[in-house]
Write a structure and sequence with these properties.
Blueprint (H helix, E strand, L loop, with lengths): L2 H14 L1 H6 L3 E4 L3 H4 L1 H9 L3 E4 L18
Parallel strand pairs: 1-2
């Protein structure tokens, strides 16, 4: 996915959630994908007053018991 496609998807969501877009009663959780971090997307979100939550670089939802899933 590139930044243009991401904005297209956000615009589709804008139509479906028009009341929430107007009242800004929701949060957008962006991960660290390059399309989400692009200047074009950040400008779009700022212009539309979208409140974003930044995703941490290392996900805290990985439990210590899941560490055996990764080879060291």
């Amino acid at each position: 996915m590139n930044k243009e496609m991401y904005i297209y998807i956000l615009l589709g969501g804008q139509k479906e959630m028009s009341e929430k877009w107007r009242t800004n009663s929701w949060f957008l959780l962006n991960d660290n994908a390059p399309a989400h971090r692009s200047v074009l997307v950040k400008d779009f979100l700022t212009k539309n007053n979208v409140t974003t939550l930044e995703h941490p670089p290392h996900s805290p939802d990985l439990a210590a018991t899941d560490c055996y899933l990764f080879l060291v």
